[in-house]
Amino acid sequence: MSESVKNVLRVENATMQFGGVVAVDNLSLEVNQGEIVSLIGPNGAGKTTAFNVITGVYQPTNGCVWFDEKKIIENYPRGKMKKLYQGQNAGKYTETLSPSPDKITQLGMARTFQNIRLWKGQSVLDNVRIAMHCRRTSNLLTATFRLNAKEEEAQTKEALELLELLGLAHVKDELSTSLPYGQQRHLEIARALATHPKLLLLDEPAAGMNPQETDELTAFIGRIRQQFHLTVFLIEHHMDLVMDISDRIYVLDFGKLIAAGTPDVIQNDQKVIDAYLGVSEDA
Amino acid sequence: MKKQNNLKTLLVTLVTIAVFAVLSVGAEAVAGNVDGMSMLVPVLKKTAVYSLIAVSMNLLNGFTGLFSLGHAGFMLVGAYTYAILSIPVAKRAGVYQYYDGGVVQFSIPETFGNLMGESVGTVIGMLLTLVISGLIAAFLAWLIGLPVLRLKSDYLAIATLGFAEIIRTFIQYEGFAPLTNGSNTLRQYASFKSLYAYVIVAGLCIAVIVLIVNSTYGRAFKAIRDDEIAAEAMGINLAKHKMMSFIISSFFAGFGGGLMAMYMASVQAKSFTVSMTYEILLIVVIGGIGSITGSIIGTFLFVGCSEWWLRFLDESANNIGGLKLLAPGFRMVVFSIFVMIIVLFFRRGIMGTHELPDVFRFLRKKIKGKGAAK
Predict the structure, then answer these.
(1) How far apart are CA B253 and CA B73, in angstroms?
(2) CB contact under 8 A, A57 and B229
(3) Which domain holds residue B83?
(4) Helix B238-264 vs helix B216-226: crossing angle, to nearest 10
(5) Architecture of the structural domain at A1-111+247-283
(6) Is the pLDDT of residue A67 over 50?
(7) Quick one: closest CA in A to B221, which residue?
(8) Residue B191 belongs to a domain
(9) Of A161, B161, B290, B342, whose CB has the highest number of CB atoms within 10 Å?
């Protein structure tokens, strides 16, 4: 790898323990500028928990997360967890850094959700415009008395362009929940893009899609990466999509990283095959 | 393009308020000259005041999704602030008869009246006092909000309910009596006489709330209501925005409380109980949670029913035959039935989350559609 490759996201020894359950165990991974990286694993492997740690929804029990060469999250087992902690690297980290999810989004990391979380009562256009709220320069007073008309106009224009690009322009005034499922997924991505992210985290973007829709989504993710100079980190169960699109893949099983590498390597990894298919008793 | 839109909105708002002001002058004339209409003016006054308070509650409960029941507390603070700051100095000895005329020995409307002339100065002073009432309620909201806004749904409701009761008890406390007159009434303060003053002031405040709701901040509030987790993930600072909504709502509750003090001509902490919050909540629910015009319509219906149209049910003289059905309090039975009917048939309130202009637009489209079909 050349020197110019830059980490966008680096997770270091992250452990997430709920009570006595270790959901994510000593997870370390890297996502480089411009890559599409996938995180796969059987159900309950801790993929979404890992996402929630990275985006600040959960505070990790131990470990740290770097974004754009800056440490954004760090924690070590404290208080009640001090005794309960079952993971590794206890004592390696000594600081506590836990910004709320909105701070992390403002740094340039946007996500979508496994179970679609659009704002139900709002129109498609407003869903995108609300996501732009975090980039506002107006305060309550200027916004109330419409002294920010220029910004509003620019944001509306940008939102319309974004919708146009994602093929949602014709439904911009519809309620977000009245859209068909596939379009709701697209709208979630549009909303994430509206925050101007550097890194896009997609949590099962193809869940519930048929093969044809999945193919379209694959092409779509490639296209937006080009257009917005994005780095993409995704969780997915559709192996066609994952193998097709990913530069690198991480495999998680019972919270532990069991394999990492290019799609070819992963496809032939015995541990991965075992994790997905199960190990036979007499092997 | 956008600028023109804004100008248009401003013009529409001002014209609407002006129309209501003219109508209210008309209503006063009608009430004075037509038999049986004597209740019209008080009902409309109360409607104006309660509308503002209901809309401010709707901003918090309906648009931000924070189920707070502390409104009566903030209204009480507003009403007391207004009353304390605007009793003319000469009348203080009479009002605070047990406390040597109280500790506050000035009156803002009177001071301004002396400075800028009786009529203009007094009005400016009164408006200023109303704003101060709002600000003090807002400050209190900030203090209460720091711990309370971390709570969710029912817990938030219980906590705010408790705070409202604490405020009421504090105001009735003997130790503060030189300031608040204890559990005695405050009266003889300056107040608006004519209906149109109430309509204009309440109308302008509601207009400001409408502007907030339709701004980028209003959209953020609605996002928090619809899905908090998604809102936070999209970069909206929950704590800050919830606090903002709570403070704005309380400001207007305090402001409305001041107006209410004017309307009632005397205030006493005893009347700002939880049931007052429930009255306003009922208005908001009947009108439609998340609809400003709904709140205003709901207020008119509620005030009209409870003060005027159903009064005849309370008079036992109206009883027909041997049935002793009509007796004091019977109107509340009928009123409750109305409320149940509304809740059964309009599950989301009269207006739902729609506004009146939306409805007109929809009807116009429908009529046009029919015309085209022919």
Answers:
(1) 9
(2) yes
(3) 2-273
(4) 110
(5) 3-Layer(aba) Sandwich (3.40)
(6) yes
(7) A130
(8) yes
(9) B290
A129 touches chain B (CB under 8 A): yes
pLDDT in tens, B318-338: 666 666 667 777 888 888 888
How far apart are the C-alpha atoms of A232 and A225, rounded to whole Å?
A: 7
Predicted TM-score (pTM) of the model is 0.90
**Are B216 and A129 an interchain contact pair (Cβ–Cβ within 8 Å)?**
yes
Using the beta-carbon criterion (under 8 Å), do B226 and A134 form an inter-chain contact?
Answer: no
Sign of CA dihedral A178, A180, A183, A187: positive
What gap in Å lies between CA B284 and CA B131, rounded to an integer?
A: 24
Chain A residues within 8 A of B290 when measuring between CB atoms: 121
Q: Nearest-CA distance from B215 to chain A in Å? A: 6
Q: Is the pLDDT of residue A2 over 70?
A: no
Residue B174 belongs to some domain of the structure: yes
* CB < 8 Å to B225, chain A: 121
Using CA atoms, how far apart are residues A202 and B233, in angstroms rounded to an integer?
13
Q: Mean pLDDT, chain A, as a whole number? A: 88
- Enter the tokens of residue B179: 């300031």
A118 contact residues in B (CB cutoff 8 A): 227, 230
Interchain contact, A131 vs B211, CB within 8 Å: no
* Number of structural domains in chain B: 1
Interface test with B, best of A106, A124, A133, A189 (most B CBs within 10 A): A133
> Cβ contact (<8 Å) for A105 and B227?
no
> pLDDT grade, residue A282 (50/70/90)?
low
Report d(CA A226, CA A208) in Å as an integer.
25
Q: Is the ipTM of this complex over 0.85?
A: yes
Please tell me the distance from the alpha carbon of residue A61 to that of residue B191, in angstroms, as a whole number. Answer: 60
A92: left (phi over 0), alpha (psi -120 to 50) or beta: alpha
Is the torsion defined by CA of A227, A246, A60, A277 positive or negative?
A: positive
